[in-house]
Amino acid sequence: MEPTKTLLIVYHSHTGGTRQLVEAACAGAQAEGGVTVRLLHASAAGAQDLLDADGYLFATPENLAAISGLMKDFFDRSYYGALDRIQGRPYASLVCAGSDGSNAARQMARIATGWRLKVVAEPLIVCTHAQTPEAILAPKQIAAADLAASHALGEALATGLALGVF
Q1: Is the domain 5-163 a CATH 3.40.50.360 member?
Q2: What is the pTM of this model?
Q3: Which of 28, 39, 87, 152 is buried most deeply by CB count within 10 Å?
Q4: Which sign, positive or negative, has the C-alpha torsion 32, 34, 27, 40?
């Protein structure tokens, strides 16, 4: 069966935690088989990538209680080029946080609301509990249970796209 739908995963990762989570989500989505998965770093993604996809997963670390600067840059560069052209498409979000992550998830939800995207899963927030400068800047190792949750999210997004549920 040739894939007919495309899931775009846009992410930024500074210490590797978010990257591990999106790799797990990507593997889950690819396990579906009926969906093409495009994994793009936020610096390489733009409005045309959004237009060419049928659904989205946006993933960011939490930086100072907000989305990362490079994710913000992606949204800034892409927002008006996709406005009124992607409404109704499904999306989910993923945040790798040191302590909370809810504000970063809220920021992405506000942007998605402006695009009139359809949220199809609660934000997946993974907390690393990094609280000191050393721990915050250190490379992250994401727990197996959190990677499994991310894998399941990717699989659910791809399955919903492939079946036309979203």
Answers
A1: yes
A2: 0.96
A3: 28
A4: negative
